[in-house]
Amino acid sequence: MEKCSQCGVCCRLFIINLNEKEYSSKEYKTLFEKFDHISDFKEAEEIGANLLSQNKDGSCIYLKDKRCSIHDRRPEVCRKFFCSSKEKKYKDMIRKIKDENSKKIW
Ligand code: SF4
């Protein structure tokens, strides 16, 4: 498997969904954290309350100097995704990363 180049592009492009355990832990900054925490996870998912907070430019709030500042406790989706993956479910995400890299704006 190819090694991560730590370009940080995937952390700038995609919105991160917390799983139930992560959301319930209240350890992560979420997009709507100013609102009350929702105890019903399905309801939280429906309204997007389990989405990680983003900076104004759309990048993940935890991306600092192209590195994940919470690498040891990064969400499950971040652990599973790898841009050299051959899994079909990641095809569109990988294409977007390649498109962004081809612009060389990072
Ligand atoms: S939590 Fe870390 S790995 Fe996940 S998108 Fe944010 S910066 Fe990237």
Summarize the structure.
With 106 residues, the chain is mostly helical. The protein has helices spanning 9-13, 20-25, 41-47, 76-80, 91-103; strands spanning 63-64, 67-68.
Helix content: 25-40%
Number of helices: 5
Largest sheet: 2 strands, antiparallel
Order of helices and strands: HHHEEHH
Shape: globular
Give me the side-by-side strand order of the main sheet: 1-2
Oligomer: single chain
Hetero groups bound?
A: iron/sulfur cluster
Number of domains: 1
- Give me the secondary-structure category: mainly alpha
Mean pLDDT: 89
What does this structure look like?
By secondary structure, the chain is mainly α. It has one domain. 34% of the residues lie in helices and 4% in strands. It has 5 helices and 2 strands, in the order H-H-H-E-E-H-H. Strands 1-2 form a two-stranded antiparallel sheet. The mean pLDDT is 89. The structure holds iron/sulfur cluster. Residues 11, 16, 60, 62-63, 68, 70, 74-75, 78 line the site of iron/sulfur cluster.
